[in-house]
Amino acid sequence: MQTRQLSQSNVNDFDFFIGSWHVAHRRLKARLVGSTEWVSFAGSTVMHKVLGGLGNMDDNVLELPGDPYRAVTLRSFNPDTHQWSIWWLDGRYPGTLDTPVVGGFEKHVGTFYADDTLAGKPIRVRFLWTMPQHDQPRWEQAFSPDGGETWEVNWIMDFTRSA
């Protein structure tokens, strides 16, 4: 799949996220089955730059009821394409790195896509990074079972700075 170059993206796109954060998670209990039941839980994130500034990484604590865990987000910037690749490593499955989403920022909104599978079926994955309020970023994940024609938002993370 070809991804388009986003001329506004640059190596400093995620600088707003450097530091320590409290996280309010909302996640659909089941995905792409018509579920409307959301699970809310707390968490924390600490983000810092890596790769001499061409990447960044966050260490996440997810206080999922009955199954708390840690995870790592790794992001790298390609200066040739002006795009980011984002990987997720779930501490419950330490040998599996998720398929990276790829994209960038346009008009202060980060949009990233990947083709993946869920329960053996092909899906399209979308991550959105927005800033609904000053210094309170939001990350949103959505899945599409029909190649991006329709989307089901299944996870929202709202961030507030830790003291």
Quick recap:
Helix content is 0%, strand content 60%.
The spatial strand order of the largest sheet comes to 1-2-3-4-5-6-7-8-9-10
Shape: globular
Mean pLDDT: 94
Note poorly predicted spans: 1-6
Name of the CATH superfamily: Calycin beta-barrel core domain
What is the count of β-strands?
10
Query: Please, how many helices?
Result: 0
| Major sheet summary line | 10 strands, antiparallel, barrel
Count up the domains: 1
Percent of residues in helices comes to under 10%
Q: Hey, roughly how much beta strand do the residues contain?
A: over 45%
User: Strand pairing plus helix content: what structural class?
Assistant: mainly beta
Using the coordinates shown, work out and report the CATH topology.
Answer: Lipocalin
The helix/strand series, from N terminus to C terminus, equals EEEEEEEEEE
CATH class: Mainly Beta
Compute the gyration radius: what is it?
15 Å
CATH architecture: Beta Barrel
Spatial separation of the terminal alpha carbons: 42 Å
